[in-house]
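Hey, sorry to bother you again with one of my protein questions. A protein chain has come my way and I'm curious about its shape. I'm sending you its amino acid sequence along with the backbone structure tokens. I owe you a coffee for this, so here goes:
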Amino acid sequence: LTHPRASGRGGGSAPLTMFPLSLHRMLLAAVNPYFRAMFVSSFKESQDGEVLLQDMAPSTVQTILHYLYTEKISVTSETAQAVFVAASRLQILPLLEICSSFLLEQVSVENCLLLYELGYAHGEQALLRVAMRQISLNFRHLSLEDKSFLHLKPSTLISIISSDSLVVSSEIVVYRAVRRWMKFQTSNRRPLLSKIMRHVRLPLLTQEELREVQLESAHCGDMRLRWKRLNRQERLQECGGLRQGMYNKCILKTKDFQVGCFDPQTEKWEKLTPLKCLYCARCLAVADKLYVTGGVHTDDSYSDTLHEYSSFRGRWTQLPSMSMPRASHGFLNCNQKLYAVGGWCRYEDYLDSAECFDLMEKTWTPISRLPHTLSHFAATVLKNKLYLIGGVTDKLGSWYVSRKVLIYKVSSNVWTQVLLDAECYWSGAVSMNNGIYVIGGYFRSRVRHHNERWPDSGNLHCSRKCFFLGEDGRVDKAVVIPKLPVEIAGAGVVRWRKRIYVLGGENTYLYNNHDGENEEEYYNTIYYWEPGDHRWTQCPERLPFSNWGISGFGCATLKLPKKTILSLFRKTSVALTAVELAES
């Protein structure tokens, strides 16, 4: 071993024995638990004074020692992986973090399999997540053409093919990938066949794909097929769910009787099974299910109902009702629980109550009340916290606009408050990039108007304004969001992939007509923006079911199974459920 600092100029190296050997042992033991165990305990290395670092290149050892003595490191694409492995083995956590951060920036389609295996072997979760994202998006290409795929360890292969995130439209892609991996070393891997095939979702194969499996099984003579008659629910349970690529992630709009589905890829609308007529209801999606709660009926009565729409069944089911009717409330999903907060239940009755619905237990439970009554606010979830932004509240028989962000920490059941720069209501909010994008809404202005319906609505105006909140609920002016093309409030604001979509909306304070009254304008436009773009883009398609535009409707992104997948769940049929090793 050599000591990096022994050279006068710092560029060379000299024998470690230029310092007393005991000093080196003390230093290494002081800064590193691996060497501490070797030099202080009863290990052989402690007696001999020599540590044998097998399977480490001398250059890697030299880099490690240089870091331990100087806390300086220069990682390159050629050295990063070797230093990462050494730092993990020697438990040098700061160096491991440096290498991991470097490798995270290097992940690409070309090296994602190698880096995933590296992260999997050393339990580096951040590296696993980033590499898996590339693998998921490019699984078909990697499994068919990348040689690294053939050399994956069995445990790593199982970890990959077990993931829901694989972007494959058919399970036959996963089956073919496993077959290719098996054939690369048939004799060594044949005993692993049935174990690995348990992670291929065989009930998702179509009849045509099943014939391919049967023919290959007969040709290779290496496995026996097990068949079972399954209905829709049994098939879904047997396979454990769909892959990401088997869904179309669409934007759902619920208004009155109509439920419209917008596919941003094709920019086309289609109708889904309608729900009973409600307005000012709220909706959200959890995976492939849509939930709608509260709202106002056509007879002006308020609703306390909760409905669930199954994209597999194509129909609605009524679930247990809320403890009270709500409209224009917050409706949020966090950790398999649905939260209904605030809103109003009659024209003058604003609410400060809140409750949550457990999707597993199918029961409602009250949570801490809001600090004050609130409705017409923007709402979103970020890192296990609920955020209510702005809104309308009442005081002494009159209403006024809030300039607060209410934050509910799910784990402690406690609300906190943060002040905004301005009063606002009926904005939209989307969580993304470790913060919250707030879009449009009504804001306070210096020009006074008069509205008999809401007396304190004076000096409010519809805005093109958008801003960004950090996790602490405070405005972060370093994040720049372009203004909306027009003034919009009450729009459907949702995230689809990396884009923010704004659908419909209104501007009821646009201008005064000849009679001196405020006129209303409603939009049927669709705009989207992706962080980094300099402006919003308008889609050619308009909102369906209305020529005049709409506002105040429910909006969410929902996973809809593709038609080829839905065909498997229409009726009871025989499905392939498992494979076993055939007798030699």
The first strand starts at residue 2 and ends at 3.
